[in-house]
Amino acid sequence: MSAITDNYKTHMEKTLHVLKEELNSVRAGRANAALLDQIQVDYYGTPTPVKNMANISIPDPRTIMITPFDPSSVKNIEKAIMVSDLGINPSNDGKVIRLVIPVVTEERRKELTKVIKKMGEESKVAIRNSRRDANDAVKKAEKAGEFTEDDSKGEMDEIQKLTDKCMKDIDKIIAEKEKELMEI
User: Fold this and answer.
1) Quick one: which of 19, 111, 112, 184 could link to 123 by a disulfide (CB 3.0–4.6 Å)?
2) Crossing angle of helices 149-182/106-143, nearest 10°?
3) pLDDT 10s per residue in the chain (184 long)?
C-alpha cells in the first residue's frame, strides 16, 4: 500500500468519525450525554464544554442530569443549554440541572430520518471526492514514473475496495441510527 492509499484510508476514517459525531447530536428521544458535546458555556470569560465542567449522568432513559463541579456555574450552564439548538428546557434546583428529553412524535421521527439520510449521503460524497483525488494522485505518480502501469492499476483497485467498504460502513451506521430512532 502506497502513501497515497494510506492518506486516502486516513481521510475515510476521519469522514466516518465525523459522521458518527454528527449522528450523536441528533436527538432521538432517549437520553444521551453526547447531546451536550457541542454546548459551550461561558465560564469566567472562556468558552468551556459542559462535559469539562460537570458530571453528566443518565438516571433514567429520558433524563440527563448535570452536576457542575462548581455550583456557581449552574446558571451559566442552564443559559448555554437554553440558547443552544437542543430544544430542551433545563430545570435546576440550585445544585443540579435536569434535562427531560421529550417523546419524539412519529412526524418528527420521519423528519430526523431524512436528516440522518442526508448526513449519510454527504459522507458518501466526501468519500467519492477523496477517491477521485486519490486516483488522480496515482495517475500523476504513474506519469511521473513513480508507478508502473500495473502498480497504478493495483493502487486504484485497492482504493476502490476501500471505497466500497466505507460505503457499506456508512450504510450500516445510518441504518443503526434509523433503527434507534424508530424503536423509541
Assistant:
1) 19
2) 170
3) 688 888 989 999 999 999 988 887 776 667 778 788 878 888 888 898 988 999 999 888 888 899 999 888 889 888 888 887 677 888 888 889 998 887 777 887 888 888 899 999 999 999 999 999 999 999 998 898 888 889 899 999 999 999 999 999 999 999 998 888 777 5
Question: Which residue from 79, 102, 78, 73 is spatially nearest to 92, judged by alpha carbons?
Answer: 78
Rounded to whole angstroms, how far apart are CA atoms 145 and 139? 10
d(CA 37, CA 28): 15
Q: How many Å apart are CA 44 and CA 16, to the nearest integer?
A: 35
- The alpha carbon of residue 153 and the mean position of all alpha carbons in its chain are separated, in whole angstroms, by 34
- State the pTM of this model: 0.68
**How far apart are the C-alpha atoms of 103 and 122, rounded to whole Å?**
28
Q: Encode burial over 125-145: b for 16+ CB neighbours within 10 A, e otherwise.
A: ebbeebbeebbebbeebbeee
CB 62 within 8 A of CB 50: no
Q: How far is CA 182 from the centre of its chain?
A: 19
Assign 118 to helix, strand or coil.
Answer: helix
